[in-house]
Amino acid sequence: MRLGCIGVIIAAACLWGGGQKVYESFASGSKKSITIEQLIKEKPDVGWYRITGARWNATDAFYSQKKTTGEFDNELLILIYPKKGFEPGDKVHLLMRQSRPDVIPSLKQLAAIDTLLKGREIVRAANKEQPSREDIEKELKMIEQADSITAKFEEDGAIEGTIEFGIDSDDAERGRVEAAGKDIMAEDYMILRPGEQPSALTGFIMLAIGIAISIFMLWGVARPTDAED
Q1: Contacting residues for 84 by C-beta, under 8 A, at least 6 apart
Q2: How far is the C-alpha of 30 from the C-alpha of 48, rounded, in Å?
Q3: DSSP SS3 for 155
Q4: DSSP one-letter code for 69
Q5: CA–CA distance, 126 with 47 (Å, rounded to integer)
Q6: Among 27, 104, 169, 198, which residue has the fewest nearby CB atoms (within 10 Å)?
Q7: pTM (2 decimals)?
Q8: Which of 89-98, 120-129, 192-201 has the lowest mean pLDDT?
Q9: What value does the mean pLDDT of the chain take?
């Protein structure tokens, strides 16, 4: 039995992923407590942190939609801000990757309100019209509705997790974030995986599987074939 290309892919993934997890575990050491200001200043490539002094809102996030159905993906990249000292025009340096299916209905509502407000503005601009008093009242109510939706998701405090890097980092995703958030995102922004911690054991298990598959494949290649009659 020969595994072929699939075996090569599985072995490579296990060796690469396992090696990264082992490196992450030893490079991170124990969990470190750090303020979000320190984290932004130091910009670590890897680490396990308890980050204090942060604030966030799950509706203030990057999200994707399925091309075929338009459905929202449950996984969000939530913008994390310093609780104090963040000024208009400052760049965002930290995102938090989190699955939040509870937020999706609210995101849909906010997207609908935003589309409606922009649509009314485009129509007025095309007709060279000024908003009437009735228009202003309706749009203020829509803005108040949006504010009441987002207010439910305001959070602050400490967050814990690991900094995403290496095989876990998606270059295509980073490109989409940089394009969509070019006015607000720092070029060297970080992504936090909340609730995760480095696991050397998992890394060693993956390495062992990768080595075992590699040995099995090499043995299969080196084994002499049965002689023909």
Answers
A1: 53
A2: 7
A3: strand
A4: T
A5: 52
A6: 169
A7: 0.77
A8: 192-201
A9: 87
Inter-residue contact 92 to 181 (CB < 8 Å): yes
CA distance 77 to 89: 20
pLDDT of residue 222: 60
Q: How high is the pLDDT of residue 203?
A: 72
Q: What is the pLDDT of residue 53?
A: 96
Q: Are strands 75-82 and 48-62 parallel, antiparallel or unpaired?
A: antiparallel
Please name the residue that has the structure tokens 């699939």. Answer: 6
3-state secondary structure of 133: helix
- 140 three-class SS: helix
The pLDDT, as a whole number, for residue 229 is: 44
Q: Is 61's pLDDT higher than 90?
A: yes
Q: What is the DSSP letter of 94?
A: E
Calpha distance 111→61 (Å, rounded): 12
The radius of gyration computed from the CA coordinates of the chain, to the nearest angstrom, equals 24
Cα torsion angle, 36, 42, 45, 47, sign: negative
Closest CA to 83 of 152, 148, 153, 36: 36
Buried b or exposed e, range 39-73, using 16+ CB within 10 angstroms: bbeeebebbbbebbbbbbbbbbbbbeeeeeeeebe
Tens digit of pLDDT for each residue in 151-187? 999 999 999 999 998 777 788 888 899 999 989 999 9
How far apart (Å, rounded) are the C-alpha atoms in residues 91 and 79?
A: 10
* 3 state SS of 88: coil
Inter-helix orientation angle 200-222/4-28, to 10°: 150
